[in-house]
């Protein structure tokens, strides 16, 4: 018979003693359990002891977490959190350097446990840490342990970051602003400041004023990958918490220091590809930089602004400079106005008598005007060629520069997600963004010439304007999927993807769709589905067996903590546990926690997950909700909560878990994979029928013959 749900069979170890195998009554007070264990080993003062897990994070067992103990768990009898906190508190005050160092090292290790951390903080332990840092007498290993312990203690949110003294913060900053300390101390200091910045605007201002960007950029250019990562994390935290004006100043300073080019050369195209965390920071830097265009994108043109009117007039003067050189007195005001209107019409404005009206729509607003002026000033030959070439065509075939530029700017804003908030988990950045400073404007210059090229290839008229812009959007998005490393490469690829290529791609996709919609083919698809779905199920389970690295994300910040989860080869147990940065695929034996698949009850996704409900209401980032899922397990319905690193992993894990639960795979990836496999299988099976029409109905079965005398009788031949 299975044991009652309130009883778990466990082993308890103690150094120098024979382990005890006991049946733990979950309804029995923990103090009574400890007394029984101590009595078995003849230990007095049971209140001075506690139980903790022997493996993994070695968490202390308390009344609040005792229900997490599983059958077969190995616990260890150790000093109680209160006794340990008292011992370390005294040890840190010791004059003996070795004792003090060992105490700080132990403190850094135990501070991960919330029970111990609470005991240490209750003894005013944080004041000890403040003193060590503020006095600045200790350095090296001792200081590193102190900063690590401080970071762990602050993770538990016992006290507010705003309670920190200015002296303490400035001392932490000083470790960042100098190269005279060990790299490990710099990394920890950068991490402390990164955690501090989002908590209040006051702390953000203090850190921004004290941390010298030059030193931060020096760390970013270091060869130490972890130091580089922490420097980037602090830089991103400062950018995200700055006001629009402060953010613009910081981005301008980064431009001045050519930091984008350094990232492009040494991080993106370095010896090692950027990891997940760095990829996320690069995505955020790209998103924050591009979002500086949002202000102009949402601003309509003011017809009374002299500055904006001058920009508009500069477009006309650059395109028709020879005609503009005619002396002012030569024409009357009416004649001059008529000439300007004619030139604005040649430029492709919808409202040539008052072209400012064309920029009233926001978005793209004034951003379109900025792009047009940049194109005219930085590539004047290409600009003049575009305008003059189209103004000399027949009216019905001319490509309107202004109208095309306004629509193209809107398309680029949509493709690049300008004006949208940064995702907390996305890692999709464009390497070519970091290749130069004026990325958006340079991309516009390439794409507006693409518009003219595509217009000519399509032999378009004004009625075809929307069709041309749809083709251009497709050319840009298809090219961006290749993630070209530079704008030059993007230009080459997008120009190679001409209108005839787009038509071929569309035709191939359409033919494939038509081919797969024939009735006999649809019947064949249905027959193949079960076999291919089983193949997908096996692939999902294989992916779960390989395992995935997950990140712990809190409402306050993107966490550095990692944990790994994988399915056992026999598909019966899920193993998981915390891992260190840099560990790619830990062996299954090193993952201490486990959940039997038989104990799994259901799968929750999105808003149904308990860890998304715990977040502050209304502030949960949408993409985190899209990546969240939880496994409900055990009779008591405990939950193991996940946030997938990307949508691909989310689909594979939710599918795999549904397979283990005996349910249908429901992710969009299942349908995509099934379509790909069906397409490949159908193509192979229909290979011999190429260029042969497949009828909608099967041919009729002929009537049976009037007699079967033509059949050969084998039995007579054998005789």
UniProtKB/TrEMBL annotation:
Coiled-coil positions: none
GO molecular function: SH3 domain binding
UniProt KW keywords: Apoptosis, Phagocytosis, SH3-binding
All copies of domain ELMO, residue ranges: 307-480
Pfam family of the protein (one): ELMO_CED12
GO biological process annotation, one example: apoptotic process
Function: Involved in cytoskeletal rearrangements required for phagocytosis of apoptotic cells and cell motility. Acts in association with DOCK1 and CRK. Was initially proposed to be required in complex with DOCK1 to activate Rac Rho small GTPases. May enhance the guanine nucleotide exchange factor (GEF) activity of DOCK1.
UniProt-recorded name of the protein: ELMO3 protein
Annotated organism of origin: Thryothorus ludovicianus (Carolina wren)
Gene: Elmo3
